[in-house]
From TrEMBL:
It comes from Pediococcus acidilactici DSM 20284. Coiled coil: none annotated. The chain crosses the membrane at residues 24-44, 56-77, 184-205. This is ABC transporter, permease protein. The gene is glnP. Keywords: Amino-acid transport, Cell membrane, Membrane, Transmembrane, Transmembrane helix, Transport. It comes from the Bacteria.
Length: 216
């Protein structure tokens, strides 16, 4: 079943697909984390109209499947004159979706830190930004890390959804090889690669959590 020669023949295409999966993963993490922070600040702001708009956005993104959003961006938006290439469409949909989840995570983290921390900072003659940077944000990071870790692992697996709009990711490469050669070996290799990717992410997330472990 596991013919070494056959594996060596299909491995380059699987690795190429894995590279595409990593690209989608990395850019989505960067874009959605940054956008998520700004959305979270809007959610905790005292400007009610902004709060309502962002809350509606978060509700929409979290309440509909990512697959549906991906299809809508690539196939639906062109009907109103907005056209994205496949790769850009995938990133756009993924970033908008995951930013909504990160916004809720960051909102919970921000609201869980006692406002007395700022008062303590003033007593110690620290400025607002010094208190935020050195006292509040490290505590927020400690609180939200487990939830962010879960979303990061989910993103590794969700990245396979780009297959539906024809992007040559890891799952698509495995499906092509399996259909061509009528064997499940490519799918087994794809599964192993996803396990390796999630294992690497879990390892680094544990390292980051350990870094913030002094906030207990």
């Amino acid at each position: 079943m596991f013919n070494i020669q056959y594996i060596s023949e299909i491995l380059p295409s699987l690795l190429s697909g894995a590279a595409m999966t990593l690209q989608v993963f990395i850019w989505t993490i960067i874009g959605s984390l940054i956008l998520g922070v700004f959305l979270a600040l809007g959610l905790v702001s005292k400007f009610k109209p902004l709060q309502y708009i962002i809350s509606a956005y978060v509700w929409l993104m979290r309440g509909t499947p990512l697959l549906l959003q991906l299809i809508f961006v690539f196939y639906g938006l062109p009907t109103v004159g907005i056209v994205f290439p496949r790769y850009e469409a995938a990133l756009f949909a993924f970033i908008l979706n995951y930013a909504a989840y990160f916004a809720e995570i960051f909102r919970g983290g921000l609201q869980s830190v006692d406002k007395g921390q700022y008062e303590a900072g003033r007593v110690l003659q620290m400025t607002y930004w010094q208190t935020t940077k050195k006292v509040v944000l490290p505590q927020v990071a400690k609180i939200v890390l487990p939830s962010i870790g879960n979303e990061v692992i989910n993103l590794v697996k969700d990245s396979s959804l780009v297959y539906v709009i024809g992007i040559g990711d890891l799952l698509r490469a495995g499906n092509v090889a399996a259909a061509r050669d009528v064997t499940l070996v490519p799918f087994i290799l794809v599964g192993i690669m996803y396990l390796i990717l999630t294992g690497i992410c879990t390892f680094f997330l544990r390292k980051v959590e350990k870094h913030y472990s002094y906030f207990r």
